[in-house]
Input
Amino acid sequence: MSTDREPIRFRFAARKALQAVDWMLSRHRSLDLHAILKACYFADKEHLNRHGRPIFGASYRAMRYGPVPVEIYELLKGEPLRIREAGVERLPWRLEGYHVRRRSNREPELSALSASDRECLERALARSVAMTFDERTAATHGPDWQKARMGWIDYRDMVDEDNPLRAAIIEELEDPETWRMEL
Output
């Protein structure tokens, strides 16, 4: 990536993030933060590579234990701005140390998630929970994490080098209208 380009940013889809995390917790009543955050990363990256757009549009920070979707992390922790942005008064989970536990047994609301979003989330969650902490960390220290500038991962770098649609996806990502689109 050229150092003179602005990193690609999207408008964060808070409602999608809320519904995705609630769905994950409906499948596993309790998950650690690392498993959830890496599932979100795997899903966003897969969706970007398959469909040309991420699911959440989160800002990814290259942290010691892998990419962290900052806004989702803030939502998981219950930061008021993120809760308001997600359009709820109370989160359907509670954070206990490093574990997130679901509060209810009701079916999760999935209306903000497309069929392709749900497919990628399903694969990403299965992948994430099947791995140990160290395996998830290693799996997320790829080229995009390594190329992070000032600690921020650029969506261009999340498009796989061997993706035959790489050039077209990046061209679309670089269109300023794409940056502002609702995901």
About this structure: The radius of gyration is 16 Å.
